[in-house]
Amino acid sequence: MRDKVEAALNEIRPALQADGGDIELVDVNDKEGSVSVRLTGACGTCPLATMTLRFGVEKVLREQVPEVKEVIAV
Q1: Rounded mean pLDDT of 11-39?
Q2: What is the span of the domain harbouring residue 50?
Q3: Closest Cα partner for 73 from 45, 50, 42, 46?
């Protein structure tokens, strides 16, 4: 599952980098279907980071990796 998550994040990454941010994969829990990520750069301090995480990152991960049940920001 980790490889699939990394591939999906690589598709999201250019959009985040265009805004001066990035995303870092921290952990993948195959058993629980959870993915922990860290938004960095401008995305880490952006007031809209929660929306980016829920409606951008989590949506894409759940579509491309059906095993993902939740995305957690750390």
Answers
A1: 95
A2: 2-73
A3: 50
Report residue 6 as tokens: 């990394």
Contact between 60 and 7 (Cβ < 8 Å): no
Q: Which two tokens stand for residue 51?
A: 């929306």
Tell me, what's the pLDDT at 36?
Answer: 97
* pLDDT, tens digit, 9 for 90 and up, residues 9-22: 999 999 999 999 99
Yes or no: say if 54 and 37 are a contact pair by the CB < 8 Å rule.
no
Element (H, E) at 27: strand 21-29
Alpha carbons 19 and 63: distance in angstroms, whole number: 23
| Cα distances (angstroms) measured from residue 28 to each of 20, 34, 50 | 25, 6, 19
